[in-house]
Amino acid sequence: MTEVTLPEKLEKIAKEIESLTVIEMADLAKYLEEKFGVSAMPVAASAAPAASAAPVEEKTAFTVTLTDAGANKLAVIKAVREILPTLGLMDAKKLVESTPKELLKDVKKDVADDAKKKVETAGGKVDLK
Question: What's this model's pTM, rounded to 2 decimal places?
């Protein structure tokens, strides 16, 4: 992480802020929000040391699992067949009746979201991992 250099005046203010307690920081944040009409970050997040912030990896591959067929199994079977067009009617029925079952594995977020939307619109429940 690169070091930020501040003018002496701002350095003095920063040192004062660093010495505040959490309650004093919360009061200061509230005052600044009211004074300038802006919203501050949560104090706990801004008070955490920057070194402890680990980079968050965004997930790129998802697994779509049918967890419950719901009350309208026929609609869920149709949705499953839309998602898996090579699946026959009987195979789709067996899959829907034996939940939880994996529908898609290692697919992109938009494909997973689309499959989830189709099943949930039909009345089923889906888990994305």
Answer: 0.53
